[in-house]
């Protein structure tokens, strides 16, 4: 449920700051989402996941997932399910219904436009 997600859209580190992603991930429990930095009109977000997110879409924004640790399962309406291992990435285009889940504690980075609503439109 969306109210169980710990989502922070503030830019925690900004520019010219070293970001220790492993330390940041270790300090949080699933489902945690934090904007780490802003790059032009996009943000880089850290996700710490375990279990299932809900089906949703982003009407005007693409979303990129990169797995750092664990496994991310991406279900996409009308497509084969994709299972991402560490160092693998996947882009869900705007307007496409999708659901992510993590069978084990998983750390990911997401790159998306700054104005995206993390829980979907």
Describe this structure in words.
This protein is mainly beta. The chain has one domain: Sandwich (Jelly Rolls). The protein contains one helix and eight strands. Strands 1, 2, 3, 4, 5, 6, 7 and 8 form an eight-stranded mixed beta sheet that branches. The longest helix is centred in the N-terminal third of the chain and has 6 residues, at 21-26. The radius of gyration is 13 Å and the shape is globular.
What is the number of domains? 1
Succession of helices and strands: EHEEEEEEE
Biggest pleated sheet: 8 strands, mixed
Mean pLDDT: 93
Q: Mind telling me the C-alpha Rg?
A: 13 Å
Shape: globular
Structural class: mainly beta
* Through-space gap between termini: 15 Å
Query: Would you identify the regions where 5 or more consecutive residues have pLDDT less than 50?
Result: none
Q: Give me the count of strands.
A: 8
Count of separate DSSP helical elements:
1
Within CATH, the superfamily carries the name Jelly Rolls
Q: Please give the CATH class.
A: Mainly Beta
Give the strand content. Answer: over 45%
Characteristic key phrases:
globular; eight-stranded mixed beta sheet; Jelly Rolls; about 120 residues; single chain; mainly beta; 1 helix
How is this structure best summarized?
The protein has one helix and eight strands, in the order βαβββββββ. It has 121 residues and is mainly β.
Write the SSE topology:
Layout: E1 6-8, H1 21-26, E2 32-39, E3 42-52, E4 63-69, E5 72-76, E6 82-84, E7 89-92, E8 98-113
Parallel strand pairs: 1-2
Antiparallel strand pairs: 2-3, 3-8, 4-7, 4-8, 5-6, 5-8
């Amino acid at each position: 449920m969306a109210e169980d997600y710990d989502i922070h859209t503030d830019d925690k580190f900004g520019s010219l700051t070293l970001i220790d992603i492993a330390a940041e991930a270790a300090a949080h429990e699933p489902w945690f989402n934090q904007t780490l930095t802003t790059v032009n009109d996009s943000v880089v977000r850290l996700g710490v996941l375990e279990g299932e997110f809900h089906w949703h879409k982003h009407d005007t924004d693409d979303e990129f997932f990169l797995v750092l640790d664990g496994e991310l399962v991406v279900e996409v309406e009308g497509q084969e399910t994709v299972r991402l291992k560490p160092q693998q990435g996947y882009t869900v285009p705007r307007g496409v219904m999708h659901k992510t889940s993590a069978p084990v504690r998983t750390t990911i980075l997401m790159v998306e436009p700054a104005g995206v609503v993390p829980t979907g439109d």
